[in-house]
Amino acid sequence: MHSTLPKPIGLYVHLPFCVRKCAYCDFASYAGRQADIPRYVDAVVQEITRRGAETGHPSADTIFLGGGTPSLLDEFQITRILDALFDAFPIEQNAEITCECNPGTLTPPFAQALRQAGVNRLSLGAQAAQTRLLRLLGRIHDWEQVIASVEIARQAGFENINLDLMFGLPSQTVSDFRETLAAAMALCPTHVSCYGLIVEEGTPICREVTAGKLVLPNEEVERDMYEFARQTFAEHGLQQYEISNFAREGYACRHNIGCWTRVRYLGFGCAAHSFFDQCRTMNPPQLDAYLAGEEPKTEQISKDEARFESMMLGLRMTRGVKDEDFTRMHGLSIRDAFGAKLDKPINAGLLEWHEGALRLTRLGMDLQNSVLVDLM
Ligand code: SF4
Hints:
It is built from 16 helices and 17 strands. It starts with 8 loop residues before the first strand and ends with a helix.
């Protein structure tokens, strides 16, 4: 008999400040609230210290500083947060430490401060190469600033750089998107996240689309864009490992893979979630409620929910869900957990077994929701 040590956890810090609210954004992010950053940093540092003690200081091997726009903090503020994490949790030697930044806000001193504080991965919201589309999205930058930010990051010593790109934008043509992909590939990122625009209710872009002032590309065009992106990335050595994520060998984002494989994580700041001790904890989604010290909400995850979650999250990845991992986590095999519910999506060619894992087929990737409904 040997005992298995618990896996190192992931740590997430939400930094919800933005220069301006993008037209499509429904994330917990706030424009015009920069004056609250000092107070917010104090609150986050306190939360990190308290949770470290409450959870018994588990070791961590990924940290993700997300937003919002973390690069709106100054060097001292971001370093304080990272120091608090390092004080409250033993951080593994080879930890992946990511900071999201927006072009137009990343400065050389900030990038250098990140490197000095141990950050080794930068994620840049690049989105599209055309100023026309960036304006329509309400982004604050142009492509020249994307190029400048990559340069600033490299100068500071960052080798692992992700670019976020979007497709399916109003008035975006296939040729616009090709141009964006070519411009992005010219910057040689190690990782790309490429998302189709989701028009969320209540956002300015949704109102414009509903009023007929903006027109989205049709589904077929959107599918062509996605296919073209997959091919382009493959040609540039960026292998797909998740529906929207592509990476060079060895550069898949470990933090996100941790979330998709239900590794425990702790989140700090407003709207941050945690998954720990079979519970999900949700911090208050509103900045003011968080600053006022409102309590998080916690819910226990039932065994059935946990099994479904493993499939919902794990099937996002091209490698699928390994039966061995599932059995280790849930005490029974995928077949035993889902039984005949697997037959329909397998027979329809949406799910397949491959090297001991259940994964979505190429067709299944497009129809993931219908597979999940079958497994519910
Ligand atoms: S930069 Fe990101 S978080 Fe901020 S408003 Fe734009 S989409 Fe939202």
